[in-house]
Every structure is written in structure tokens, then in C-alpha cells.
Specification:
Blueprint (H helix, E strand, L loop, with lengths): L3 E6 L3 E8 L2 E2 L3 E4 L2 H12 L6 E5 L4 E8 L4 H15 L6 E8 L7 E8 L6 H9 L4 E6 H12 L6 E7 L2 E8 L2 E8 L7 H18 L9 E7 L4 H7 L6 E7 H7 L10 H11 L12 H61 L7 H17 L4 H12 L4 E11 L2 H4 L20 E10 L6 H16 L4 E7 L24 E8 L3
Helix pairs in contact: 1-3, 4-8, 5-6
Length: about 500
């Protein structure tokens, strides 16, 4: 939390405090004359860069309630600004608050207009700060700060009159719910009895609120009186509850505890200053050009905070990068040590082995070649599957022998001797080799009928020949029907157990 200047301004003097770590310092008092102004200037010279909050507690503070047509946007802003200029032409310290709408009729907007009608009580102090480039955050009203006080003390009611004793006198502020409706400040004479004065002013205020229709006849007005504990017995005796009024007394000790303020002050000034220091609300009254130094201070603070955040992020990034480098180096050292152990273990195992006939690279190549041959080498499975499917469709055919082989390419077949290496194609590497299968079998159920035997053979061969890339040759037909061969025997006289035999040559080239 930043340190702050808190200035409490009345018609006669300015009371200066420093706000550090949530605490108020001792007050420095400056009278509203030339000597007081000079002393105030020297006070500001001690630390002109500290932001300042000026709290005004003046009799010349006006409050008016008015209704305006309900409009929005730019038209609303212009309408409010024009009404402010009409009401308070001679002061720059003016404010308008929208507090809802009328419940019926045109549903006009309800506004509270307020202003410091005597700007001369504030401007000399503000000018002194402007000359020394003090960042003035805002000009605040004790009346609007009392709205915060009502919420912190948890005394809000539909019709509430808050009474506080302040440096300028007795402040009476009337609230409807959370909205301030009216406030007045009266002086307390040196010889006035405080309790009697509060009772009398409360009665006048009740009459005023009833006459202005802020409260209706018969409505209950709740009055919260904030006072030192020593005054409470006299106040309770002087202020009696009635049919339309009910009093609640809050001692300063309780209020200070609610605001976490050390000690119990005699006046409400320090309570209101604590709210200004801790809550730091936006300025109640606009500053105009006087706010430029505070805006520059905010920009400077923002740049410093941004630079600090950037530096912190850079340091964090460097720290993370350094830690990752240390971790990577540690992991690398661990891997190197593990690699050395594995290398030493390998050399130890190799030292115990007998001398090897082949180099390690050749052994690796052999293992790789074995895997390729196992994965891509020719096998009779596909050709056998084709033959099995054809046999399922030819129940009269029975196989007696199968011979399967792979034919080597012509270049390898023309080798000079048995010592030549096997061609890669014969192993299925590169282009798939030609597979040849000799099939021997016999035909059942056609004894004595040459035509039936030949037709069964032809159907079986034709069925096989429909397979892609499969060529079928009849090596030995069951019946020799060549024109130059004489048929012998007599149909119907064959032995009962004899079956015509045949042999086929199947040639198949895989895709």
C-alpha cells in the first residue's frame, strides 16, 4: 500500500496526516492565513511526490434533489452537465448522482446535485499543491464518506439520520437505504451542551424532512448518533424515543474497532480520513487540470510496476532455464555413466567368448537376411490353398502325391556349378520367383467310362486354371486319347478297385 497525504480542510484550517501501512500519523495543523499557507508549503516540500487526498468539511456544501427526464447516452450527460451549470455556476466543485427513477408517471430520473458553494475554502490549498506538483488524487466530501461509514457500521435503514461530531460542527446526514438525500452542518458553541444541542437539532431535522416529504407523516425515523463513550449517558437522557423517532447510540470505541483504527477519537474526522485512506474512492468533485500530476504519478507507478513485473519474469525465466540446464547436465552425466557401464559389460562378455569365424557386421547382415527371407520368401501355402479350393468342388478327385519347387531365374540356372550362390529372386527378394507344383491323383466313380473320366479331369483342370497367374498343364492324362494311340480294353470290364490316375503341372507366379 502506498503512503498518502490526507488533508482535512475546514473553513478555518487544514489538518495534515500521513497514511502509512494503514495507520494515520499525528496531525499537523495549518491555519487558513498567509503564515499557515507558507508553513503548509514547507510541509509539502518534504515529500512532494506522495499522492494527496483532500477531504472538505464545510458549511458551504449544498444538496438539491431534482427530477430529470429519463434519457441515456450523450443526451443524458449533456442534460446533467447543463443543469449543474445552472445550479452551481460559480464553483468547479460540483457533482450529480443518479439515484434511481420515479416509480410511476413518466418514471423520471431521481438525481442528487451537490457542490462546494465556497470554492475559496479549498482552492488556495489545492493551488499550493499544484505549484509543487503534488499528485492530488481528489477532493472528497465528508458527507459522501459518511455513506461509507454507514455501511461499515452496518446501521443502514430505510429512513436513517446519521449524526456525527466533526471539526466544523454537528453533521446531520439523511439516508434512504444506501442513497444520501440531504445533509446539513451546524456549529456547536463553546458553551452549548452537546446532548441538548443534538436533541434540538434532531427535532428540527425531523420537521424539515417531513415538510419536504422526504419522510411521510407517521414514518419512523431512525437516528444513529456517533459520540464518545463519556457523552452516551447524557445523550440517552436527552434524546428520548417517540412514536416517529428511534435513537441508536454508537460509541467511538466501537466505531474505531469496526474500522480497525487504534484508539477512540473524540471527533469523527479520523474515522472519515481512515475511510478515504483505506478505500481510496474516486474523487467526489472533479479536479479538471489539477488532476494531471496525479495522472502522471499513476503512469509512473504503472511503468515502474510493469518494469518490476518484466524483471521478475526475466529472472524467473533465467532461473527456470538454469535449473533445466543443471537437470539436463545431470541426466547427460547419468547416461554417459550408464553407457560406460554397458560398454564395459559388453567387452567383458566378448572377452569370455571363443574366437568368432565371422565378423559382427556379417552376423548382423545374416540375421537381417534371415528375417527378410522369413517375411518375403516363397512358400507353398498360397498354391496349396488354390488346390484345396478346387478339390472341394471336385469330390471325385483324390490326390496321391504333391511335389512343390521354386524355379530359379534363367541367369542363376545357367551357372557353372553347384558352388554358385542362390539368386536373390529365388528367395523372394526383389521379384517373386515362379512356383511349380506337380500334382498326382486319381479319379473315383468313373470305372469303365472313358468319357466320364476325361470330363472329370477337364473340369478339375479348368477350375484350377481360373486362378490368376496360374497355368495348368496335363502331364499324364487319365485316358490317352491321342489319335496315334490305340485304345485297348473294353468299357465296363475294368477291375472294381482300379481308378484312373493323372498328373498335373501347376505353374504360378505370385504378384
Amino acid at each position: 500500500m502506498f503512503s498518502k497525504h490526507l488533508f482535512y480542510v475546514t473553513a478555518d484550517h487544514l489538518c495534515a496526516y500521513r497514511w502509512r501501512r494503514g495507520k494515520l500519523s499525528a496531525a499537523s495543523l495549518f491555519d487558513a492565513d498567509s503564515a499557515g499557507m507558507e508553513a503548509f508549503g514547507r510541509y509539502l516540500d518534504d515529500d512532494p511526490r506522495m499522492p494527496a487526498y483532500l477531504v472538505a468539511d464545510l458549511v458551504e456544501e449544498d444538496f438539491q434533489r431534482q427530477l430529470l427526464p429519463h434519457v441515456s447516452g450523450r443526451a443524458r450527460r449533456e442534460l446533467i452537465a447543463r443543469r449543474l451549470r445552472q445550479l452551481y455556476r460559480d464553483t468547479p466543485y460540483r457533482l450529480a448522482l443518479v439515484q434511481g427513477r420515479e416509480p410511476d408517471g413518466r418514471r423520471d430520473d431521481q438525481l442528487l446535485f451537490s457542490a462546494l458553494t465556497n470554492p475559496g475554502a479549498v482552492q488556495p490549498w489545492a493551488l499550493m499543491m499544484e505549484q509543487r506538483r503534488v499528485p492530488l488524487a481528489g477532493v472528497y466530501s465528508t458527507v459522501f464518506l459518511s455513506a461509507l461509514l454507514v455501511r461499515r457500521l452496518a446501521v443502514a435503514q430505510e429512513n436513517l439520520l446519521l449524526i456525527t461530531q466533526q471539526s466544523s460542527g454537528l453533521r446531520q446526514s439523511y439516508f434512504q437505504g444506501r442513497h444520501l438525500k440531504f445533509s446539513r452542518l451546524t456549529e456547536i458553541g463553546a458553551h452549548d451542551r452537546v446532548a441538548a444541542h443534538i436533541a434540538a437539532e434532531t427535532a428540527r431535522m425531523q420537521q424539515f424532512l417531513t415538510s419536504t416529504r422526504l419522510i411521510g407523516r407517521g414514518d419512523l425515523l431512525r437516528v444513529a448518533v456517533l459520540a464518545p463513550a463519556a457523552q452516551l449517558p447524557e445523550l440517552e437522557a436527552a434524546c428520548e424515543d417517540g412514536a416517529e423517532i428511534a435513537f441508536q447510540f454508537i460509541d467511538m470505541q466501537t466505531a474505531a474497532a469496526r474500522l480497525k483504527l487504534d484508539g477512540a477519537p473524540q471527533l469523527a474526522d479520523q474515522l472519515l480520513l481512515t475511510l478515504a485512506g483505506s478505500a481510496a474512492p474516486a474523487s467526489h468533485y472533479p479536479l479538471g487540470q489539477q488532476a494531471r500530476f496525479f495522472q502522471l504519478w499513476q503512469a509512473r507507478v504503472g511503468l515502474v510496476a510493469g518494469s518490476a513485473a518484466l524483471a521478475a519474469a526475466a529472472l524467473l525465466w533465467v532461473g527456470i532455464d538454469f535449473w533445466e540446464g543443471v537437470r539436463d547436465q545431470r541426466d547427460s552425466n547419468a547416461l554417459m555413466a550408464e553407457a560406460k557401464q554397458d560398454d564395459a559389460r559388453f567387452h567383458g562378455i566378448m572377452a569370455d567368448l571363443p574366437p568368432r569365424a565371422a565378423r559382427t557386421a556379417n552376423m548382423k547382415a545374416a540375421v537381417l537376411l534371415e528375417g527378410l527371407v522369413a517375411a518375403q520368401g516363397p512358400a507353398p501355402g498360397a498354391l496349396v490353398a488354390m488346390l484345396s479350393e478346387a478339390l472341394d468342388r471336385a469330390p471325385a478327385i483324390t490326390l496321391t502325391a504333391i511335389d512343390w519347387k521354386v524355379e530359379q531365374p534363367a541367369a542363376a540356372a545357367n551357372g557353372t556349378g553347384g558352388g554358385e550362390p542362390i539368386a536373390a529372386a529365388a528367395l523372394g527378394l526383389g521379384r517373386a520367383p515362379l512356383q511349380v507344383m506337380r500334382v498326382e491323383g486319381e479319379i473315383a466313380g468313373a470305372q469303365g467310362s472313358y468319357r466320364a473320366t476325361a470330363e472329370a479331369m477337364d473340369r478339375f483342370a479348368a477350375d484350377l486354371a481360373r486362378q490368376p497367374r496360374l497355368r495348368v498343364e496335363v502331364v499324364e492324362p487319365p485316358v490317352d486319347v491321342r489319335p496315334n494311340v490305340t485304345l485297348s480294353g473294353k468299357a465296363g470290364l475294368a477291375e472294381p478297385d482300379s481308378k484312373p490316375k493323372f498328373a498335373l503341372r501347376l505353374s504360378w507366379t505370385p504378384s
